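re: ur question from yesterday

yeah so i grabbed the chain u mentioned. its 340 aa long if i counted rite. heres the sequnce exactly as i have it in my notes:
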Amino acid sequence: MYLPKDISALELLPFFELTPDLVCIAGKDGYFRRVNQSVITKLEYTEQELFARPISDFIYPEDRTLTQEQRKKLIDGKPLVNFQNRYVSKSGKIIWLNWTSVYFPEREVVFAIATEKRLAELEVEAKYNRVKNLADYFKGNIERDRKYLAVSLHEELAQLLAVLKIDIDWIKAKKDELPAVVAERLDHANTITTLLIKTIQRISFTISPGMLDDLGLTETLKWHCNELSLISSIKCTLSGTCNEALLSKEIQLDIFRVCQEALHNIIYHSNAANAIIIISESELEFSFCITDDGVGFDAAAITIHPGLTVMKERAASINASVTISSKPGNGTEVKLILKK
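ran it thru and got these structure tokens back, copy pasting raw so excuse formatting
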């Protein structure tokens, strides 16, 4: 974009006055230097009134801090694209504007163009936010219920079984005084009790992975892979890592749920010998890829599948995407991509 040496020369640009968009030039000091008629009409101030006050005075109070932060980035050389904020007209109307701005350091001015967001767009956006908030609310409730159930299983049922095992061990210590058949049944009861304790612990983890808060996403997934390797004939491993500090606990939980669902699908449907989770990170995104060497399936032929739907819905709730690639005889790849 060319900026004339004499800013007033912009008057010669036909689009400056004819476009219905709001076009302006602002100084580094935060004041308007030049505005087109659309700005004057929309904000309802005269040109003199607009030039006499800092631009921040016309911005909706709750948007001033964020606008100032974005403006600083703009002055530092980062173009502003599709930035939304609110202005207040002279009559008090709130106007939503969508800005694209470029800073020209040699002239110390900002050239900016804005389009007004229509009421219909705002209504759609508001409905989307309401639905998303509602979905987050229900998802949060489900996870809290899961956590309560997991704690109940682990802290109550598993402990009761542990007490029962202690009693069985005590009776076994007296086996010299017991008939052989009774001692044999006690050995069997002891083995079953041990298996029950481990099963409850595993189910408790599956319902709500408590170690996620303590050890983080990578270590929790690694532990889950080891557990699945023990209870199935599939060798499950994990490779790679990422900067988990950039992921909130809620997002880590959703990523874990997607990976968990993909691994369970492998166990129950793939007939695979090996499965692997590969974690990677670039400047733009996080990637979690779950692959297996199983029988595969025709991905194009399956339109609705509960497990696949769950993964895609989980990913969508955190603005991520899930792609599934598979062919009969060639295994399956599930890839979750989360943009930074």
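noticed a couple things. Residues 119-172 form the longest helix (54 residues). also The chain has a mean pLDDT of 82.
anyway ttyl
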